[in-house]
Amino acid sequence: MLDQIRETTDFIKKQYGKQPQVGIILGTGLGALVKEIDIEHTISYQDIPHFPVSTVESHSGKLILGVLGNKTVVCMQGRFHYYEGYSMQQITFPVRVMKYLGIKQLFISNASGGLRTDQQISDLMILNDHINLLPDNPLRGKNDSELGPRFPDMSDAYDATLIDLALKIAARHNIRVHTGVYAAVPGPNLETPAEYRYLRILGADAVGMSTIPENLVARQMGIPCFAISVITDLGVDGKIKKVKIEEVIEAAAIAEPKMTLLMKSLIEET
Description:
- The protein is built from six helices and nine strands.
- The radius of gyration is 17 Å and the shape is globular.
- Strand 7, helix 4 and strand 8 form a beta-alpha-beta unit.
- It has a single domain (2-269), classed as 3-Layer(aba) Sandwich (Rossmann fold).
- The longest helix has 25 residues, at 245-269.
- It is of the alpha/beta class.
């Protein structure tokens, strides 16, 4: 894997000479943050050595390099999921490349199902912890100490300083935001009512199909991480209804301006 990471990193460095300070991963229907980036270079995933290619229609599949909030950023406009058939190592490969490019912080967004009665569709939830229900782990297998420790501590999966600052920014701009625990499941199907109840009993406040693998690798490599969910549907008794992907994208689009403002301000102020 190290040889592939170095080869990919060298390829990107030849395309873009600056060292990114911040890495960004944008989730389903949440690509508008790219419009706030002063884009200096764009690379399609299919042109990057060893990169997977996004197969989800709402994911653009481009690596964006440029400046946001006076920070040099590398932004994934579209991510990879376990349900697409990729291994956990493939899903998280771009995070390892970002580390080798030089990022000091990682910002992640996703669309998720809300599990609390006080949540509404298009609300934002800042992750302060997670529950990993995925059937595999990107850290499984032979460990190379150059990538990080064999047994990384996860007591601070999401950076408390970034969470605190994000809450202050949200209050300043009157943005409705929750904090909570995110659970990741394999997908691609949405959950049954019984599964939603099960997740609530476990202590989850939202459920999705991504983010945790990228977080695990980021933390193993010592990268502070901030993650935020857009609540695009509700898994609460009495509020559960049939959901189509178009409705998920629409709910994400409503929340996009708020999330974009929050993420841009957070990156500017760190």
